[in-house]
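Exam review. A common question shows you a sequence with its structure tokens and asks you to describe the fold in words. Practice with the pair below. Do the first one on your own.
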Amino acid sequence: MDGFVSIGTRQQTAPATGQDIRGRFAAAAAGIGAVPALSLRGEVAAIRGNAVEIRGLAGFATIGRRAALPAAGDPAGITVEILGFRDGVAQAAAFGRLEGVSPGCPARLLGTDGLRVDDAWRGRVIDPLGQPLDGRGPLPQGRFARPVRAAAPAAGTRARLGPRLDLGVRVLDAFTTCREGQRLGLFAASGVGKSSLMSMLVRDADCDVAVVALVGERGRELREFVEDDLGLAGLARSVVVCATSDATPLLRREAAYAAMAVAEHFRDQGQRVLLLMDSVTRFAMALRELGLAAGEPPATRGYPPSVFAELPALLERAGPAPGDTPEGARGSITGLFTVLVEGDDHDEPVADAVRGILDGHVVLDRRIGERGRYPAVDVLRSLSRTVPGCLAPEEHALAQRARRILSLHADMAELIRLGAYRAGTDPAVDEAVRLAPRLEAFLAQRKDERSGIALAFAGLREALDGAA
């Protein structure tokens, strides 16, 4: 027998040589490679819009698992994701268009995968599936796949917020001062300057890397935002994840999850990440389309209950990294999430839910923009819940005094405009009339002008101490 020698009535194993071992490994590898891969298949039972029902996967597939449907001219096929089950039939939605798919088409269950994020993704524009959109060739792939759907760090082990963070925008640094790992909402109607404000934050905020999620963005605005608003300097330290408004709801939803996964990659390396998402409202709209397609009942303004479960699941992933290290010693994700306020209704369901989850809110007002002051931030309606813990007493006093002056001037604006108020009647009103224009000038900032917390409070002090 091969591998044995006869010694009397006993058999003794001959020592194997290195060549023998290599040969056995090669034979084993060839044998394993010859075994056909296990492939679980079902078939399409029904199609309604972008929703697909697949029969034959119950007991094997789970919610969130993906499957491939055949597509003409595309060997990879059309990828769908399972959203739920009804009577043993999987309810799925497609990442692409379903032209050419019909009932009876095979559905092949895919393995679990994620995004292989790499440090070289800085300066790139990608889609939610990790494919390049900038025409600059394939993306380098990291060693490990990171799941796009992940749990938020446990509250008991998450590090505390870090030191205050220079955002580079005077009005935000002075009146909604932000700390590393904080989450702020930018609430505004369309056309009030959200994109310009976001570009200022990406270029000028004191962070190591910026991740920008454009969810449901107009297709023509992608290159304008990247080339004009971000510029070469802003893009060089950014990763832009985009799903345009004509993308399927599953792809628009995935843009938010993919951007969060990219931000978590850099956070886990100890870097300070600035995550900007525009907009959470379009993310919620995509969830609404998916939920209704899966058969969920509509609730508040047509949003199914799952939307209000997914919002905190996504937003809570931003913040400081988990761990028991000293404050500021680990990476963090500072999140700024825009909320599209339809009809200037700040109490609509998505805005109300997001405001309750985040650590503060910044309100952009169309009337302020119409007066020509940008960023069009309404100081009196904006706040940061971490301000008491990150301002010096003198800075806090300056901000409070400025708020009182702006509030009093707003209350008296109509009387002043009509000439019904006489100077000298009330010293506080006289002070407000004198200082309000100086504060308005302080709050205005050009897109190419950088500020910081120290400069912001120095300018605020100068505005409040101005002579008549």
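Now try the second one, then compare your answer with the model answer below.
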Amino acid sequence: MARYDDRDDHDDVHYTSLDSPVGPLLLTADPSGALTSLSVPGQKGGRTPRPEWRHTPGLFREAERQLAAYFAGELKEFHLRFRTNGTAFRERVWAALDSVPYGATTTYGDIAARAGASRAAVRAVGGAIGANPLLIVRPCHRVIGADGSLTGYAGGLDRKVLLLTMEGALQSS
């Protein structure tokens, strides 16, 4: 799998910004158009455009189309090319996130089990989920506490509530 390292931005980074119901989205991609990150303002570990990045909105047409369909309630599963750079453990956790269906929630313990990690690794699983570079597209917002509580979300709990409500996993209040 090709790799991308957020700390090493000498690669040819392309980006665009999109408006959404959860606020502005910043998307980055490699030159082939593979999505490397999707973040929101104020996100823990989020990205900010750099002067050497290339603003190329045309490269993101398919991602923009799919995101618009998702927010309109017409798309339940993303089909986008992406490249992420994580340890083998993080990649297993992120793959487990990909298996959580639209409109459902799961727990950190369940993600640990799906990733082949022990129950004792739940804290490490939480760290891997928090480092997910592809908010929304890789549905880390669908992970909740074992007691049903809406625990941390790198994009903020208000966004997590909005996404889960939009998907029907939470009742609107």
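Model answer, second protein: Confidence is low (pLDDT under 50) at residues 1-10. DSSP finds five helices and six strands in the chain. Full marks require stating both points clearly.
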